[in-house]
Each structure stands twice: as C-alpha cells, then as structure tokens.
Fold this protein.
Amino acid sequence: MLALSACAAASPHEALAQDDGPGERRVIVVVMPEGINLATLSAIPDAAVALMSGGIGSVPASQTYLDITQGARTNASVYPEDVPLVLVNPVRGVQPAKWRIVKRRAREAPAEVEPGLLGSALQAAGLPTRALPEAGNAGIIAVNREGELDVSRCRACPGLTVTASRVSTVVDLALDRRPGDLLIAFERPPADRRDQLSVAIVGLGQGVLHSDSTRRDGYVLSTDVAPTILSHLGVEIPDAMAGRPLTVNPDSDLAAVQELEERMGAVGERRRSALGVNLLIWLGLVVLAGLAFRRRGLRVALPLLAVSAAYLPTVLLLTAALRPSATGEQVIAGVLSPALALVTLLLLRGWGALALASGVTVVAHAVDVIVGSPLTSLSLMGPNPALGVRFFGIGNELESALTALLMVGVGAGLAAWWPNASSAQAAIVFAGAALLGVAAFAPGRFGADVGAAIVIPVGAAAAIAAYAGGGRGRVLLILAAPVAALAALMAIDLALGGDAHLSRSVLEAGGLDEVGQVAERRLRLSAKSFANYSDSIALWAAVAALLAGIVWRRRVLSWFERPAARAGFLGAAAATLVGTVANDSGALILMVGTAVTSLCAAYAWAGRRA
C-alpha cells in the first residue's frame, strides 16, 4: 500500500495534466451523488448512457461495489451473513477485519464470487489500481484479492483510478479525456428510486449502452463494469466474471430508455392491483354466483373464471405495449380478460374454449420471447427486471403458468377436436408441443429460463404416460424426459456458439463442484421463497388444494370424462411439482401452477354430465 504521494497537493486539473506516456490507457471510475437522471448524463460530451442494476433486489452500496470488483453476483439471501459496512480509510485503505469477513462470506456462498478479482487481474497485467481519498468506500472497486488498495492523488496515471465527484467534474474529465481513455460515471448506490442507477461511459462512442447480460439497450448490470474495463485495457477477462463487456448502440433512443425506467418501476407496484385484486374480485363473483344460483351458477361461473385466467397473461402483454395508467391497466386486465372468455365460451363448447385461451397465451408469449421479449419482460406477469433478477424472457412464475397452460391446452384441444386419438397419436401431439415449448422458452439465446427445459418435458412425459397407462415405464419416461431435453439443448447451444444461459451457468461452471453450487443455490433460494411467503394466504391455499387433490384424487380425476383432458391436467400437475423443487422460486411456482391446475379441475367439474 502506498502512502499519499507528493501529488496529493496538486489541484485536480494539475493531476489531469500528468501523463505517463501516450501509449498507456487509463480508466477513471467516478461515483456521483444520488439523484442523477439520464437526461443530465446524456449531456456529458460523447457519453453513452443507460440504467444500471445495482444488485439482486435492494442491496447496500458495499455489495454493489463488491459485485463490480467481482464481475459477478448472487442473491444476497444465499450469503451466510449480511455484507458488512466496508469502509475505506483515506490513508490505510480497506479495514483488514472487514475484508476478512468479505472473503469468508464469498467463500461460503454457493456461488463463484471473488472479491477483488478486477484489481488483481489488472495488477497481474502490470496495470496499477488506485482510489482517490474522496472515493470513500467506492474505493472497494480498485482493491485486489488481498484487500490492498493504493490511495493516492494521481487521477491521470495509467491503469484504473476510482474517485467520487459531481457531474460538473465528470464533464471536465470528459473534455480533458485523451484518446484511448475510458471514463465511467454512475450514480452512488443504493438507488433511491425504483432500484435503478444512472450510468454514463465516455470512450465507447455516443448513444445508449447495450449489455449482453440483459440482452437489451439501455439496461446494464453492475457486473458488466469490470469486464468492460478489462476489455478496454486489453486484459483477459477471468472465467469467474459473469458480466459482459458493454457496447454502444448509437441509434437507440434515450426517450425509450426513460420509458423503460418508468415501466420497470411500475411493474412491482401494479402487480398487486392488476393481478391480485382482479383475481379476488373474480373469485368473489364466483362465490356470489354459487350462493345465488347454487350448482347451476357455479357451472357457468367456474368455466368463465378458468378461461379468464388463461387469457390474463395475454391481456397483460397488451397492457405492456399500451403502457396505460395504473388504474387503466387494472381495469383493462379486470374487464378484457372476462370479456374474451365470455365470447370464447359462447363460440366454443366443451374443452375447446379452454384449449383456445391456453393456446393463445402460450403462442403469444413464445412469439414475443423469440423476437427478444419486448413485451414479456415488461408485463406484470413478466420477470420484473427492476428487482435485478431477470431481464429478458420469462420469469419463474410465468414459466410455471405457461408450462401448465401448455399441458392443459394440449389436453383440452385433444379432448375437444381429436377425442379418439390413439395413445401413439396423443404422444406425438404432447411431445411435439413440448418440443416447440422448449425451443421457445428454454434457450437463453432467446432470453428465457432453462428451467423450462426441465418442467415442460416432465409435464409432457407425465401426460403421455397418463394417456397411455403403464407402470414402471411411466416413471422411467418421466425421469428421462428432462435429461434428454437438457442434453439436446446443450448440444444445440454449443453448435450455435455456447452463449445461452444454460451454457454460461452450468457448462462454464468449472466442473461438478461448481454445478453442485448452482444446485445448492437453487435449493437454498427455493427454501427461502417458502419462508418469505409463509404468511401468504395464497401459499397456504395452494398447499391445501394440493393436499386435497392428493387425498381425493380419484374423485377429482373422475371429473375428467375425456382421457386427453385428464392427461393434460396430470401433466400440468407433474410439471408444477417438479418445478417447485427444480427452480429457485419454489413457493411462487407452487402457487401459480396449483392455481392453473385447480382451475382446470374446476372447469372439468363444471362441464361433466350431471
């Protein structure tokens, strides 16, 4: 660790004037005060701007800085302890006791995270890293694996320099920047609005930043900062870094990024009203219909509820495109879904209505995901990227809904339009639908969830086995289906370049030990999700429905007078149970999947012959 150098007395402009040679590149990272918006940053000369996710959920500033220097991050709940307040002394650097805690929690977390990896990679390449005293705890970004930090005044020296200052200073730095230098400036975490940080980079070109991690313009991750620095300085990016070097789209529109920020902030706030409140209203109306008209009322209300719920995700794609007000979105979701359901039930009898509604929702989301998830990622049933968990494709809850609807829809379609299909013919239909579903939702290249490669084949295998009957062979088919699907997905992705989510999270994990960490992390997060929802009425209702279905399974299955519909129902149930264990949002998977299968059972009860 170096003491404060003689240049500590130099003014900022004198420091900027220093130069160790025209061939040596410099990277300056500036942490700005909170409250800086994109419009302000876009005025910086030659800047490319974006929103930046500071962590998975709301995390303290120290964790954001650690994620930057790691070039990787994991869910805060899987760390053995909370991140300490890592202070950086303006003379001595990082407190050794705090750094030992940082190292221990990273070592014990079921993830490959290495604090100080950025600093060590640069120093190994002969490039110094330092932080100006005013950087404060943002100086963590420049430490090496041992927590060592050079605190000096040399802002214009080669290598990496971390500091903190106002936007006006960033403008001066941009104007004084020499060719080959890189200037990165972002808002001080944690974000005080909508969980997003504003970031600007000067030296990559003017426009909007693009991230291969999020697969979108205008939204990047904190873990992309380190790979961007290393790439710019010509240093090899360590395998442990999950982030990707940022690029610039000069044609992207700043207004679109501002709209993205507004929409992402609204997703979490509106879910309760547009989803939860509307569903409660619908359930209340079903109860009133039952009280007023008894069995006859339920035979009308339950199919209407089931088909409305099947259409709801599609309607929320529409509202993601229209961007209405909060009240408008709730009204559209609450009225349009039942209206579509009513028209469908009037036009199609029997299982045809549920088949059409399920098919429309699955196909609409598949098309959107394949073209880059422009609507799914901003839907109220989408992945809610403001939480920093997923930024493209489908989230776990939507994966559960779409998988269940796919199985239910195929079974309902066979029951309505091909009731006499043989076992082989039904197997071809279920398998073909599963193959198309995996192709659309599983490859990370389109931006979706690898869990779909597990639950969709399981659901199809269970449906095929239920339709055809059989004993031990049924179990083997269900077990083999996801293994075969994952193997095929890996092979296809490797042939196409190996950049899918599956390859990056599993194939690049570094061996069976790292794959085990991925599995452990998922199990921990799944268990955590049940703890988080332990006071949720919806969770306990799902558990009660599941137990009731198991206890009275013979009665429930007797409601399905068409074997194909029964097979689809069982396929959806199997996919839900496996997804609850295989995904890191087990409680959500169980609630959503159980809701779909329960509505399918209610539809069957309402449609059976008296």
Observations:
- Confidence is low (pLDDT under 50) at residues 1-23, 507-512.
- The CA atoms of residues 295 and 610 lie 10 Å apart.
- The radius of gyration is 27 Å.
